[in-house]
């Protein structure tokens, strides 16, 4: 049996302030660090051993991964970072408070921007200093791939080739793989793995730093998936994420 663990990063400073984050490179809060420690301890306790892990180019995910590996005594393993696992790009919404945005544009519109499959938030202007083309970490990437905003569909279009060409073969090879990424980049991968419809994916809200385990047979057919942790606590965390888009 092959096991994939998907982990959203721990709470970030902008999660705490309830701001749209996307590709903004914000740090973990103290609570986020504690959540990562808890996730690492839990994975170790459940007997997981990874030889390879994947994460994004954003420090909230990278730091979460490092903390988890440290708790598991797996600091030594190979880690591959890729922009393809970055969070969905939130365009011109990045930095805005989600509750205030709901006051201004309505909760329904905010839900569409946050969770719809194919409707993207308003784009950053090409000359915006936050344009990823101006960021040294994305210099090696062809400009046409770099977004100024993304719908989940666009996030899936850039993450799925990485899943198929890199992570899935690695899972075949190593048997256990850890991927630490973001609420929406992981929703995209989960949509694909579980064959969730464009309509249904709107209802999925991932809690921070709760390990989500996917078990596959040797041909990588999905057998079952489950979160590690207390189901009631996880349900409440998911509900809290959904409620971040409500008016203040
Ligand atoms: O702001 C973001 O980048 C994401 C993840 O934190 O938020 P949301 O849950 O609104 O998609």
Q: How would you summarize what this structure contains?
A:
With 248 residues, the protein is α/β, with parallel strands linked by helices.
Name the helix and strand elements from N-terminus to C-terminus, one letter apiece. EHHEHEHHHEHEEH
Average pLDDT value? 97
Strand content: 5-15%
The fold-level CATH name is Rossmann fold
Q: Percentage of helical residues? A: 25-40%
Active site: 9, 87
Pathway: Carbohydrate degradation; glycolysis; pyruvate from D-glyceraldehyde 3-phosphate: step 3/5
Keywords: Gluconeogenesis, Glycolysis, Isomerase
Catalytic activity: (2R)-2-phosphoglycerate = (2R)-3-phosphoglycerate
Describe the structure.
With 248 residues, the chain is α/β, with parallel strands linked by helices. It has a single domain, classed as 3-Layer(aba) Sandwich (Rossmann fold), CATH 3.40.50. It is built from eight helices and six strands; from the N terminus they run βααβαβαααβαββα. A six-stranded mixed β-sheet has the order 3-2-4-1-5-6. A hairpin with a 5-residue loop joins strand 5 and strand 6. The radius of gyration is 17 Å and the shape is globular. The mean pLDDT is 97. The structure holds 2-phosphoglyceric acid. Residues 15, 20-22, 87, 90, 114, 182-184, 241, 244 line the site of 2-phosphoglyceric acid. Belongs to the phosphoglycerate mutase family. BPG-dependent PGAM subfamily. GO terms for molecular function: phosphoglycerate mutase activity. Catalyzes the interconversion of 2-phosphoglycerate and 3-phosphoglycerate. InterPro entries: His_Pase_superF_clade-1, His_PPase_superfam, PG/BPGM_mutase_AS, Phosphogly_mut1. Its EC number is 5.4.2.11.
